[in-house]
Amino acid sequence: MEQNFIIIPLYSPVSKAYGDEPVPKFTQLNRWNSLWTRTVSDVIALTFPILLDGLKPQFFPDGEKIFNCLLPCGSIVRAHVCYDCRNFYVHSSNLLEDWLLRKVLDLAPKELLTYDKLREAGVDSLKIIKEQECYRMATAEWNAYEKFIQEKPFTI
Question: Which domain holds residue 37?
Answer without folding.
Answer: 5-151
